Amino acid sequence: MKQEFYTIVDKVFAKLKELGADGAEVSVSRGKADELNVDAGEFSLARTTISNSLGIRALTGSRKGESYINRCDDAAISQAAEEAVAAANNSEPDEAEDIGASIGEREFDTGWTESELGVMYDRMQDFISACKAEYPKADILQFITRGRTGDSLFANTNGTRVYQHGGYYTVSIGVSGRDGDKTSSMQYYGFSAEDLNKPFMDNAEVRRLCKEIELQIETVPVSGKFVGDVLVAPDCVADFIDSVLTSSVYGGSLYTGSSPWKDKLGQMVADSRLTVEFDPFDDRFVKGSELTSDGHLAEKHTVIENGILKSFICNRYSANKTGHKRAGNYGVNCIIAPGDKSFDELAASIGNGLVLNRFSGGNPASNGDFSGIAKNSFRIRGGKIAEAVSETMISGNLRDMLNNIGGIGNSQIQDGSIAVPWIVFRGVTISGK
After folding, report:
1. Least crowded by CB within 10 Å, which of 41, 214, 247, 391?
2. Which residues contact 378 (CB under 8 A, 6 or more apart)?
3. Is residue 418 within 8 Å of residue 192, measured between CB atoms?
């Protein structure tokens, strides 16, 4: 496949040169996904899907044009190249557009070959049996396991050629509690893994999901409106942090001038206990990327260290546009440093608030204000986790929350793509009936 991809790239570059392009980046990929589905507790689907893609980014002077197709035959290559050059010729000049310097020829191979469908089936069947035996009130509504393999080649006209091959499994579990006619809302958890050596029920978060969903069959509405503390689950923490970073440190927010942190490099922007970094090479992650999307070798990148804004997340274009340094990677594999409190100690520190397991809400406002529904959550009173609550509104300001942290968990939940602890945020408005 590697030689096939090289041949495709050579054909694209030859066609682009013929059409008058001054430089280009090309990416070719082919992926395979073996998938098993369970619906309502029963196996319902087995399938294999194949995907192909060809992406072209061409420059004529400082004008950029792009095209993306899912075929790589000669006719499709010619059409895609023509579309990319035509788009470039019709675009506005932008001096920030360029092609990355050569990093030579590289190859990255995880050694992963094919999905083990038999193991996938056995693990799923084991989980169904274990769930019925240990958590009889937990209904498996949707359960999907995929084995993914893929090959890709990134190349540019400056001589970069990076070939990557790898594979991994993804598991997604959706459960609901049921007791007679009473049911809970659905709760999801997903993770990635290099192999399926460990039973799914041995994953601590999966077991917590099944245990808590039974407790959420009976819920109590929150009375009134108050300002309290929220103990936030790791995947929600990651989403909140991502929302803040998207509007504050990514290149687009910098060159449009909308970032509230555009002048805060080297200054405190969060609680001194908060450190946020991105590291695609951390051993806990199953499939980082050795290459950035614009063809640079990826590196570990720290954004916030002990509350101080250390860097922005600029790709090559936004770095050229703003004059800031290009980031080592563009937000791949989030790591939030652990703190010094156990989960029980975090809960005990809350006099009045919630355990937030899932959040449903729209995008935050540009100033960081947000509101939405706390789902699959529990009341905390006097440091004790109490009853499950029916859907309750929470609201606040995300950037303010980063400066109002009550505690950080001493362990990180690792789902194969992030390593994030539980965090207590103080001063969140909680609204019930």
Report:
1. 41
2. 212, 215, 354, 355, 357, 385, 386, 387, 388, 389
3. no
Q: What is the radius of gyration, based on Cα positions, of the chain?
A: 24
205 and 97 together in one domain = yes
pLDDT in tens, 364-394: 888 899 999 999 999 999 999 999 999 899 9
Give the three-state DSSP class for 244. Answer: helix
- Tell me: pLDDT of 287 over 90: no
* CA separation for the pair 135, 212 (Å, rounded): 10
- φ, ψ (nearest 5 deg) of residue 60: -120, 105
Are residues 208 and 95 part of one domain?
A: yes
CATH number at residue 133: 3.30.2290.10
**77-84 mean pLDDT:** 97
Please name the amino acid found at residue 255. Answer: Y
pLDDT of residue 105: 96
- What is the β-pairing status of strands 358-361 and 369-375? antiparallel
Quickly tell me which residue has 């995947």 as its tokens: 235
What pLDDT does residue 365 have?
Answer: 86
Distance CA 67, CA 55 (A): 6
β-pairing, 352-356 vs 225-232, is: parallel
Distance of CA 253 to CAs 138, 249, 307, 319, 335, Å? Answer: 43, 7, 20, 12, 22
DSSP state of 84: H
Co-location of 170 and 235 in the same domain: no
Domain limit, last residue, from 193, 215, 237: 215
* Closest by Cα among 276, 223, 253, 222 to 405: 276
Average pLDDT over residues 183-199: 94
